[in-house]
Amino acid sequence: MTPATSLAITNTLLPALELENISYAYRTDWLRKRVLALKDISLSVMPGEAFGFLGHNGAGKTTAIKCILGLTKLSAGAIRIFGKDAIDIESRKLIGYLPEQPYFYDYLTVREIMHLYATLRGVPAAQRNSEIDSTLKRVAILDRAETRMRALSKGLMQRVAMAQAILGSPKVLILDEPFSGLDPVGRKEFRDLLLELKNAGTTLFMSSHILGDVEFLCDRASIMVKGELRGVFNLRDLSRGDGAGFELALQSCAATQAPLDAELRESASETSDNGHILRLKFTTRYHAEAALRRAMGAGLAVESFEPLHQNLEDIFMSLLGKK
Amino acid sequence: MEKVLAIALTTYRESIRGKALYSILLFALLMLIIALFFGSITIGDQVIVIKDFGLFATSLFSVAFAVISGTALLSKELARKTIYNILSKPVSRSAFLWGKFLGLFATTTVMIVLMALGLTIFLSIYQGAVDTSLFAAYPYQILELAIVCATAIFFSSILVTPSLSGMLTFAIFLAGRSVDYILILLAKLELPDPVEYLLRGVYWILPHLTRLTVSDRVVFGEAIPSSHLLWSSAYVAGYCVALLIISSYFFQKREFN
Predict the structure, then answer these.
(1) b/e string for B19-56 if b means 16 or more Cβ within 10 A?
(2) Rounded distance, CA A52 to CA A46, Å?
(3) C-beta atoms of B6 and A116 within 8 A
(4) Lowest-pLDDT range, B43-57, B97-111, B185-199?
(5) N or C: which end of chain A has fewer CB within 10 A?
(6) What's the whole-model pTM score?
């Protein structure tokens, strides 16, 4: 892609990725009834945005990704990449894809694999070698370029998978469990690389079980439950701490203050007491501040008073009905 | 075209580094044992027996390799999901199939060339002089393999089970080698019209591999006109192209669940 084309794409108001009322059904065999794997899903990811695509195993994340890549055909709806129908081969020029559990041809070297993908992606022959070297260097695997794939560990294989995904600087990266198989150092390096790509304007669409990484990298996230989209969340709002309530921690009341203790506990939505510190949780600022005033007025020592931060895990677990 | 060749090169490298060399080594070992065995028991022209057996073994090994490897090719790609990485790039499914076919065909051709070299060296040592008399048979074996490879790709593109694809490919190979019997049958039997039309249809659909079977003529030193090779090549090219177009049509509709 020429810089001019690239600029034209990123300047447009078209979403980088758009899923419009998509559904996907399949039969395990002719006699069995249809299984609806994706149910009327709609979402848009804007250019330069990092989007987390979450859900438990079997929720339909990988199926949705296969639909985006044109590997499975939709039963209903449409998928567009910068306005182009995802079925159109041309749309795939804009995509880089990192598969879950990547496998490659065992007897090929890393460089041979990269040559294959560079050719398929349409990297001009004259630029292929330099592009491959710089990409392998970026994922810290250039020193293994002549090693056959079968000799690589899972973590190194994941680096090759990332290398082939970012080869040719695609505008949209579809990442299916990008941190799988990586050690802590590898995870940190991948996070930094993805952040760098995001800052450079690449759109990220990422499915992951590691919620901390999604929270760190993504601007928004959606949660899939049994093939349905249960909501799209702005992760920047979560980090601002709105909506999760407040916690007041006090020194536990003496036996003579039993009525006050009972009153405070009754006003809270949740309490815990370890014998020294009484922790009271409130859903609203009004109730929390009223309790704080009451406690201070009675001369109780206040240990802390703070807004509670709701995190992605809380939302994820509550949507799955685990909390 | 560059993308097709890149897939073909990958398929070739993966096949040749994986299994083909072991097959060739096995072939060489088998040849040596059988030649020594025949040398000790044959009455008459031992060289003709060894040549005949050599061509038979070359054909058998390469066809077996093409059937097994060809039918496993796509199922392995699907099982290991390597196909996802390929088709997520701007590559058409038909380009993928053509690449797989060319890679498989290149692998089997190299196998035949290596086995032919081995047989030539063996015959030359056995007779004490360089013997290239079998060279006329190898282009026909290569043409026959092209049809077997295309058939294997065809069945793999429409069926999920590699063993079933393999059995059907081998069945088509055997039927293609016996296709002339259909004409003999039609000439000898009085069949109702619909059955006769059906058999004639089957006759034209099946690959005419009998046209490519020239081993006996070569072994006994009969000259084969070059026009026969030319027409046979044209027939095989047309047959393979037709088969791959049909395969692409079905493969285009395939879901990767």
Answers:
(1) bbeebbeebbeebeeebeeeeeeeeeebbebbbbbbbe
(2) 13
(3) yes
(4) B43-57
(5) C
(6) 0.80
